[in-house]
Write a structure and sequence with these properties.
92 residues, mainly alpha, 29% helix, elongated
């Protein structure tokens, strides 16, 4: 890749410890987190069918965390539908 590189943008010249810290702070994931507050009827469900958090009055969740199972595709479309459902609930 050397012929294509004009200059280093970051992280620059760092000692070993600073490079480790840079890698820890700069690394991230592109996974679409979901299914952490699943919607459903069973005892393990955090959210009911109206997106209300069980046992916490006035709190609702409207994001990918309410999906009961991990989607086999990108979560964006499903999350948009969840947001639209929450809008219907709030307006209705």
């Amino acid at each position: 890749m050397k012929p294509f590189v004009k200059r280093e943008i970051m992280p620059g010249a760092l000692d070993d410890i600073a490079m480790i810290n840079f890698a820890k702070n700069a690394a991230g994931t592109y996974f679409h987190e979901s299914c952490t507050c699943k919607m459903g009827l069973d005892e393990m469900s955090v959210v009911d069918g109206r997106l209300s958090v069980r046992g916490v009055e006035g709190l609702s969740i409207a994001d990918a965390s309410v999906m009961p199972r991990v989607s086999t595709g990108n979560t964006m479309a499903s999350t948009v539908i969840i947001g639209e459902r929450m809008a219907d609930i709030l307006l209705g």
